[in-house]
Amino acid sequence: MTTSPAPTASRRGMLALMGALALSACGFTPVFGPGGQAEGLRGQIFVADPEDRKGFVFVSRMEDRLGLPEAAPYLLDYTISVREDGVGITPERSTTRYNVLGRIDYSLTERATGAKLATGKVENFTGYSATGSIIGEISATEDAYERLMVILADQLVTELIATAPDWRR
């Protein structure tokens, strides 16, 4: 039995170069890079301070994606709404699985003038199993809420980037 040799460093470099050339040929430009849709947006949006653990996870993810604000000209206010629905119910009426549904309503304003530039909402869900130990269920619940906040933050960042040419001045 023969195996193919591992790619050499020069072969990997050639493959990377070919991939970069293919992307540049199709008009690809980095979203935050020169000429990109959100050029210069990193560090320009101050996300309102969180009020609880869900908000902390949301704001942390927003700052990871958009950069820490530096004299940010824009302010993002938001309201987080979540609810749980039992979706796995046994014949004994015990709930074994929950969906956690989340929604973030947001408004983006220009800090200097107070002008509202964009408003909207993002929605999504995640779930967790309620079977197992109490500690396991608590951990699964916390993880589901954290995953949901990351998902919603990622959706909101995508929406802000996609609409940046409409609201940026």
TrEMBL record:
Keywords recorded for this protein, A-Z: Lipoprotein, Signal
Alphabetized PROSITE patterns for the sequence: TAT
Stretch forming the signal peptide: 1-25
Species in which this protein is naturally found: Psychromarinibacter halotolerans
Pfam family, one: LptE
Protein name: LPS assembly lipoprotein LptE
The gene coding this protein: lptE
